[in-house]
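Take one record.
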Amino acid sequence: MDLSWHNIKTIFTTFYLSAYIPLTILSYSLEYHFFKLDPRAYHTTNIVLHLFNCLLVFWLIYKLSSNIYISFVTTILFAIHPLRVESVAWITGRKDVLYSFLFLGALLSYLYYRGKQVIKYYWLSLFLFILSVLAKGMAVTFPFVLLLCDYLFHRKFNKYLLLEKIPFFVIALVFGVIAILGERSFEDITTTSSFIFFDKVLIVSYGLLFYLTKIAVPVKLSCYYPYPEKIGGFLPPIFFFSFIIIVGLIIAVILTKKYTRKVIFGSLFFLIAILPYLQLIRAGQLIANRYIYIPSIGLFYMVGTGFFWLYTRKLRSVNVLKSVLGIIFIGIVGVLSFITFNQCRIWKDSMTLWNNVLDKYPNVPVAYNNRGTVYYDKGEYDKAVTEFTLALKYNPNYVRAYYNLGITYDAKGEYDRAIIELNKALMVNPKYAAAYNNRGLIYGRVGEYDKAIADLTKALKINPKYAEAYCNRGITYGRIEKYDRAIVDFTEALRNDHKYAEAYYNRAIAYFLIKEYEKAWQDVRKSEGLGYPVDPNFLELLIETSKGQHR
């Protein structure tokens, strides 16, 4: 997406796959403006942001602990842990590294404000927090982290402490509501609606224990972890065991209060930062490695504190054991680095990524669907059909797989089968605008123009800003020689996407057919300027008909 004012407005007024992340999308637009689709630029940005985040983590932990050794251990673990790979290696993980950069900057600014009582740091913290939630809504936890820092520093709980947090909480509330609206607007998302409240408590417990386990033993990592299936109306036993273990850990953390606030701080930092993704009220993926990017700082802080405590207190006079502890830490760093290196290989391309998921979880419909998309993009349609069919075997209500089967059969020229699959998609989700659009396209190809227009109109009723559907309906009107209506639709498509080259080209044809040659020339030039492959025969006809007067 280019950097026109129209597109910038669109960026800040549109959800992207249920998420409101305008600052993240804007960062992609900046890269596209300078580097187009060169993946090296996008990957480099992610890596640079991660490196800056490592520096900010070191700085933050030093401000919290006044101890360079604790800062070093925390930062090393944060930097190289295998759970980092998804956020850094995946270009779409930009939102995690970007929001984290701003989140950490805002937190450091607040700590400077708290320490020096200089108001400019307060406003800087607020400004960076706003940018952070614009990068990713997960930053709404920030005000609670501020209160947690006040707790760590024994700051007196009073009216002033709460008043200074009000702007942060107001912003968090606004963006929290926006995030919920975004989830409701997304038509193809996994939900926890089949689980009762106690089930969700068990799922939260399982999620917490899962993250703790993966941080301690980062094996069998995947870009996708499936939802649990109930057995006889109950979740698997591991969820009940997880609840018991988490309750025990909570009790243990509470018992440390009389000795230190650091364990409670690290634990609550982890819990608060991960809270939006623990499935109590949110829909979406159950667990993801990227969710732990910021929350893990709290856990690594406790590990760093524990290492320093052992090294300086318990082993103070035993040099051999101190050396052993150092060797253990070096060994941990070496093992984590090795796993991280191998994990990066999995993210080589989409095929290696989804093959890895299916190696670990062979019954995951999302993985079959996404692998099918890879085959579709390669033009290997028979293999794509096999993958989408497998996805539906494991989830007969998987609307996206029905849709993908439909467009694959369309690409193969099997229009009847394509319509059947798109019908199934619309039975599962009657508000699936893309399915109406593509079924309308197919009806147009087979000459059933009334059905085509009806479907495209339904798509536009669901999504009034659907530029492609306007263009397709315009093409259909053109086929039945309703050129004025076609021009209206092409114009509306361009109003919603002013860089839509195909709409310019088709409007040029419509203008030509009603003998408005000047307007036809204007649109042809615009479509050519946008790189659209203009038919040379049409150009020759336009030249001859208009007698070259308007070139």
